[in-house]
What we know:
There is one protein chain. The protein has 93 residues and is mainly α. Helices cover 44% and strands 9% of the residues. It is built from two helices and two strands. The chain has a two-stranded antiparallel sheet. The radius of gyration is 17 Å and the shape is elongated.
Amino acid sequence: MKNDRxxxxxxxxxxxxxxxxxxxxxxxxxxxxxxRDHTSGSSFIxxxxxxxxxxxxxxxxxxxxxxxxxxxxxxxxxxxxEEIYRLRRIISK
Length: 93
């Protein structure tokens, strides 16, 4: 293998990614950008929803696109992991 891009994603890799998701602050995470989503204060990522609101994250040095990516990764990565497992089940039949 030349580098990490050349190797297949193993079950162990998926377990580690999934564990990081489980240990992260519960979602959903929502990106709020000053000037786009609100008009005062700073840009931040809100964690949790109405029933389980967590701490807000403020990220220094990130672009709007970076912040949106980070916030959405909290929801996107678990979906992608489940899709990988679903496709693997289909392939293994």
